[in-house]
Structures are given as structure tokens and as C-alpha cells.
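FW: tagging you since you asked about this chain on Friday. Here's the raw sequence from the shared folder, copied in full. Didn't touch anything.
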Amino acid sequence: MHKKKRAQVTVYIIIGLIILFLAILMFYLRGRTEGDMGMQEIVRAQKIPIEARPITNYVTTQLDDATKKGLYLVGMQGGYIYESQGGPILDPIEEGSDFIYYNDYTVSYGIYKQTQESSYFYFPDPPRYPWDNFPCIFYEDCVGARIMLDLGSFGTKNLPPLDGPDPYSIESQLRLYITNYLRENIDLTIFDKQGFEIDADINNINVSVIIGENDVIAFLEYPLGINKTITNTITNVSYFYTNPQIRLKKVYKFVEDIIKNDIVNIIFDIDNPNNDGDDIWIEKIENAYEHDDLIVIRDNKSMLYAEPYTFQFARENRNPALHLIYLPI
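HL: got it, structure written out here
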């Protein structure tokens, strides 16, 4: 009798968990798609006539190009787009200190070695690095049971925020890069010979960027007054949209996690295959610049220019941590 009741309770628990899971999934999908669908509806509601579509398609293509190129630069350069490229970040100066130049890209450091004593027992330089009696806390601990401690602070993170109002967040960088790219590349005069008069101000544009778990949305507000002179038909269009399927938020969280592990765990093996997951994998290119490594993250579920999306950063070399060898007297 009791076994039957337990079985019934177990079934109810399982059903309850399934219902809870489905509710959470629906909430997630609703939150994931509301912004996406809302922007699509705004764009589609404009009811653009066929004769004006070459112009709107042209602007949309420019927006798509700008977004993808910005995403590419962010990934190849460790989360940064520099001023000379149309971004907000000052161009780095010294290789081996500010960046590594690798395959024609200026790759920023994501991890610097710790240069200051970060706790009462940590020492950044030999012969006491990383601390006296490593990996034991005290010399006495190395006798017998050997109390081990591998966690500390052995590096510093140099990764920009993903989103938010910070002018150096990846979201803000992409927004500025896309804006500058469009101002530099959009040329509506190419439609003059096709019989169009277009009233537009390229300086009067507003770009929004939303970084999702599985995609990135770029939304452009750019008021156009399109006049087909032969028919004197005027079309007003203001909104444009693109949605690259790049899992930037997921990749960023992955990168952030491995950086945190690397700087707190001195025995962490950053390119161990066990660290890969969700079709995201790690490659370490040793001595990419002198003794500093390049860490390359590739997402096989995010394709950009027919290749897995890549996010890479440099890691400053730090001293090897030597274990204390206990020699009994």
C-alpha cells in the first residue's frame, strides 16, 4: 500500500516538474522573441511599394554588412573595436603589452598576469611565487596529509562588459561601429539615374543593438522620403532591421567563465577538451607572441562568413608554479 502511494507521489512530482519546465521554456521563448518580433512587425508594417524596394533593400544590406563586420571585429580582437576602425576604443600602442598582432588582427589581452600581492600569502615574483610552500598553505601541511590549495588570484581579467550603458561595452561598441559604417558607406545618389529623388539625412540615424543568447539584432531608424519622379509617388520609410544568428551572449559567457577559471585556479588547463561544451570549443596557440598565448574560441552553431564564429584573446605568460619538495631531516 505504502509503495503504491509512493509511486503515485513520484508520478505527481514528475508531472509537476514537466509542467514547470514547460512554463519556464515558454517564458524564455517569449522573452527571447518579443523584441525580435516587435522590430520585424515595425519594419513590415511600413508597406513598401515594389518600386521603392531596391532602395530599402540597399539600406538593409548595408545594415547587415555593418553588423556582421562589427561582430567579426569584436570576435577577432578580444571584444574591442578600435577608433581607426570606427569604434570607441583607443588604438593600442605596444605589442606584447596592449595586444598581439596575429593574422592581420590586433588581438587584445583577455588575461594579464597578476603583478601585485592579491592576498596575504600571494607573491607575484620568484622565488616565492605563487606563495610560500605551494601548493600547501603552511610548511607543516606538506608533511603527512598535505593540505592542498590551488585557488587564488593569479591574473586579471581584461574583458569589456557585454551590454549596458558603458561606452566600452560590446553593445555600445557595435552601435557606434554600425553608425559610423553606415554614415561612411551609404550613398543614395546611386539611385538618381533610376529616377528617384530621396530626401534623407545620413547624420539623422539611430542604431539599436540587442545581444541575445542565440542571435544579435540591429535596428536602424533612418527616415527616408522616396519620390519616384516619373509618377510623383512618395514613399516614407524609417525603419530597417537585421538579425545575424550569432550566439554572442552564449559565447561571451563561455569566454568569461574560462577566464575566471584561469585566473583563480593555477592548475586550470584552459584548452582541456573537458572545458568544451554546447558546440563551443577552445584552441590554445602557444607562444603566439614571445611566451604569450592566443586563446581561440569557436562556436560551431554560429556561422559567420561560412566559418564558425570566432572569439579570441591573448593571455600573458606567467611563471610556472613549482611545488614545494619536502625533504625530511
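FW: Confidence is low (pLDDT under 50) at residues 22-35.
HL: agreed, and The helical segments are 2-44, 53-76, 170-185, 248-264.
FW: great, closing this out.
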